[in-house]
Amino acid sequence: MKIFTTLLLVLWGAVLLGVSSVYGQAKAYQAQLAPVMESGYYNIELDNRLVGCAKDNFSNLRIVQQDTADTMEIPYFIRAVQPSSKETKMIDYPIFQRIEKDSINRFVVHNPEKREIKDFYVTINKADVVITASVRGSNNGEDWFSVKQKQPIYTDQTSSGGEATLFIGMPEGHYPYYEIELVNNQATPLKLNKVSTVVDTHTYGQFSPILLQYDAKLTQQKNKTTLVSFIRQPQYYKLNKVSVAIDNPQDYYRKAMLRDSITKVAIPLTLSSKGSNEFIVEHVVVQNPYIEIYNGNNPPIVIKDVVLSALTRFATAYLHAGKTYDVIVNNEITEIPEYDIQHFKNEIPLLLPTVKTIDFTSSELATAKERSSETAGNMNTLLWVVLSVVGLLVVYICYQTFKKLGK
């Protein structure tokens, strides 16, 4: 009897294993590359759905050339997440509302993109004067707030062409309007030529919005809590930035939590009328996220928009003109690729032409389907074998039982 029970357990385990092999099918994610006109190295901007479905080390990502007799794998390497190159450039601002009277120059510069600004460079005609400067900021061009108290400023007289540059340093901010007042120790105003600032431009470390978009129709109030919802997507995403736009007439300070019903993440956030309400998070995997905003006994804040963004990732590879390439993420791949290009990536320029991935698709792997079909056929045979063996065992046990009763 013990032999019979053991045999049944073994056979049942085999059946369950066969069932799991039928339903445990792998997925593949694929995007094409826009064609290139010249052969050379390119930075391939990866669709953030590919990044979200790839492993953290990108070991299951492959670039293949499809228009060959056999699929050819193309060596590549992933550019670093943090900015690998940084350039600085001067940006000139338009000048409005000029007031020039006696020893005073007062004017307004517009910062429509709300760039983070921590200094201004004001170009004037050279003059033998002592200059003080003060700065105010405004969100609407009407209500002004002090940014920099009146202080003497540094003047660079080395500029050519009869010009000098005034350096005005201040606490970093992002007001759309700045009012600058210059006061000199003479009785006449300065000759103002232009106002500039220095900004950093990054080649890498950029953010791009993901397809998980804010859904105002599903956002609701429940138990003193605002539940912010997003349009659900079938793929995973690696989330790196959350930007919340709030339209509230009064000051607010609210605790919030970013959650995901599938990946079970929980990231604390703090929304404040004194902050930018932009939050950097560390490669959080999401598919069905939502945000809980705790209002307490306060009226709910008004959500204008919420933008979820991912770091834009780049793969660098040598592409041939006129060839067709696909970028594939294959969940069945377990081996980390070994490419010679990894040893030369520091010699390949950072600033390369960029090509984007297009036509993203996802599907079950063909090999998985074939294996599933084959496994299903084998299961039918296995089930018949199991039933036959069990039937023979039942007949044998009945025979032994009747034999004992006969005695």
Describe the structure.
The structure is a single chain. With 407 residues, the chain is of the alpha+beta class. The protein contains three helices and 27 strands. The strands form five sheets. Strands 4-3-26-1-27-2-25-5 form an eight-stranded mixed beta sheet. Helix 1 (2-23) packs antiparallel against helix 3. The two termini are 20 Å apart.
Structure summarized in a few sentences:
With 407 residues, the protein is of the alpha+beta class. The chain has three helices and 27 strands. It has helices spanning 2-23, 48-53, 366-406; strands at 27-33, 40-45, 61-65, 72-74, 76-78, 86-93, 95-101, 104-110, 117-125, 131-138, 144-152, 154-156, 163-173, 177-184, 192-202, 207-209, 214-222, 225-230, 237-246, 253-260, 266-272, 278-286, 289-294, 303-311, 314-319, 325-330, 354-364.
Ends: how far apart?
Answer: 20 Å
Sheet with the most strands?
8 strands, mixed
Helix content: 10-25%
Overall pLDDT confidence: 81
Give the number of helices: 3
Radius of gyration, in Å, reads 33 Å
Beta-strand fraction estimate = over 45%
Annotation keywords:
five-stranded antiparallel sheet; eight-stranded mixed sheet; 3 helices; 48% strand
Helices and strands, with pairings:
Elements: H1 2-23, E1 27-33, E2 40-45, H2 48-53, E3 61-65, E4 72-74, E5 76-78, E6 86-93, E7 95-101, E8 104-110, E9 117-125, E10 131-138, E11 144-152, E12 154-156, E13 163-173, E14 177-184, E15 192-202, E16 207-209, E17 214-222, E18 225-230, E19 237-246, E20 253-260, E21 266-272, E22 278-286, E23 289-294, E24 303-311, E25 314-319, E26 325-330, E27 354-364, H3 366-406
Parallel strand pairs: 2-27
Antiparallel strand pairs: 1-26, 1-27, 2-25, 3-4, 3-26, 5-25, 6-15, 7-8, 8-14, 9-13, 9-15, 10-11, 10-14, 12-13, 16-24, 17-18, 18-23, 19-22, 19-24, 20-21, 20-23
Helix pairs in contact: 1-3
